[in-house]
């Protein structure tokens, strides 16, 4: 099949789920700076647990790599995830939470659902399936970071400056672009017309699980109140 601009085509085919993820109420409140800190804290603790499993998914991508170049690209993704976790440690330290407290937190069902879904896509499928399941994570956060960055210029005291800056950063933007480029290579090699709908279904599901992940922050903060 014609696989040009494959990321844009997959996103267009899953646009409703994608928008529910990147335009979630959590992101709107984050942009406005009105998101309750309790909601953000619950989200961030779960996100730390999420990233541990996500690092395993990138490690699986290394294992599933047919070529050395695929392996090096997956290693870049793994490094980006491991680097991102410093943000979580830093922000949590500011609230008096230590790394040990984070690791000891129970994983929420939404965290388990999303991470294990991605790991399963990788286990049963090939590197393209796994890569598509991984895509909403890095590419979505990069899109959100770019979109929210102007809110920082508008508000010098923005409460979520550190978080937004991380995802708007050159390093994170590059990692997301590398992910788009790798997906393109994999699609050129392995994507057929018959597989396209399966690939879109994986992307849609992962985007839905991302939206559920934002929602979890609100739900957990309400339960703890
Ligand atoms: C749930 C989730 N998705 C994506 C990212 C970006 O790596 C993250 N930190 N957490």
TrEMBL record:
<dbReference type="InterPro" id="IPR050967">
    <property type="entry name" value="Thiamine_Salvage_TenA"/>
</dbReference>
<dbReference type="Pfam" id="PF03070">
    <property type="entry name" value="TENA_THI-4"/>
</dbReference>
<keyword id="KW-0378">Hydrolase</keyword>
<dbReference type="GO" id="GO:0005829">
    <property type="term" value="C:cytosol"/>
</dbReference>
<dbReference type="InterPro" id="IPR016084">
    <property type="entry name" value="Haem_Oase-like_multi-hlx"/>
</dbReference>
<dbReference type="GO" id="GO:0009229">
    <property type="term" value="P:thiamine diphosphate biosynthetic process"/>
</dbReference>
<protein>
    <recommendedName>
        <fullName>Aminopyrimidine aminohydrolase</fullName>
        <ecNumber>3.5.99.2</ecNumber>
    </recommendedName>
</protein>
<dbReference type="GO" id="GO:0050334">
    <property type="term" value="F:thiaminase activity"/>
</dbReference>
<comment type="similarity">
    <text>Belongs to the TenA family.</text>
</comment>
<dbReference type="GO" id="GO:0009228">
    <property type="term" value="P:thiamine biosynthetic process"/>
</dbReference>
<feature type="domain" description="Thiaminase-2/PQQC">
    <location>
        <begin position="18"/>
        <end position="218"/>
    </location>
</feature>
<comment type="function">
    <text>Catalyzes an amino-pyrimidine hydrolysis reaction at the C5' of the pyrimidine moiety of thiamine compounds, a reaction that is part of a thiamine salvage pathway.</text>
</comment>
<keyword id="KW-0784">Thiamine biosynthesis</keyword>
<comment type="pathway">
    <text>Cofactor biosynthesis; thiamine diphosphate biosynthesis.</text>
</comment>
<dbReference type="InterPro" id="IPR027574">
    <property type="entry name" value="Thiaminase_II"/>
</dbReference>
<dbReference type="InterPro" id="IPR004305">
    <property type="entry name" value="Thiaminase-2/PQQC"/>
</dbReference>
């Amino acid at each position: 099949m014609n696989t040009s601009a494959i990321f844009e085509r997959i996103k267009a085919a899953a646009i409703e789920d994608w928008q529910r993820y990147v335009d979630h109420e959590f992101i709107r409140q984050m942009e406005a700076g009105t998101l309750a800190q309790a909601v953000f804290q619950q989200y961030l603790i779960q996100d730390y647990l999420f990233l541990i499993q996500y690092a395993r998914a990138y490690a699986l991508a290394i294992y599933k790599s047919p070529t050395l170049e695929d392996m090096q690209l997956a290693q870049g993704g793994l490094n980006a995830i491991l680097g991102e976790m410093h943000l979580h440690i830093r922000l949590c330290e500011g609230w008096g939470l230590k790394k040990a407290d984070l690791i000891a937190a129970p994983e929420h069902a939404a965290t388990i659902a999303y991470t294990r879904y991605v790991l399963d896509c990788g286990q049963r499928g090939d590197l393209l399936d796994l890569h598509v399941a991984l895509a909403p994570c890095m590419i979505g956060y990069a899109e959100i970071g770019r979109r929210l960055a102007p809110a920082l210029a508008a508000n010098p005291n923005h409460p979520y400056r550190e978080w937004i800056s991380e995802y708007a950063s050159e390093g994170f933007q590059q990692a997301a672009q590398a992910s788009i480029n790798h997906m393109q290579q994999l699609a050129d090699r392995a994507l057929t017309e018959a597989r396209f709908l399966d690939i879109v279904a994986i992307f849609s599901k992962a985007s839905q699980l991302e939206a559920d992940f934002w929602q979890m922050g609100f739900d957990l903060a309400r339960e703890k109140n």
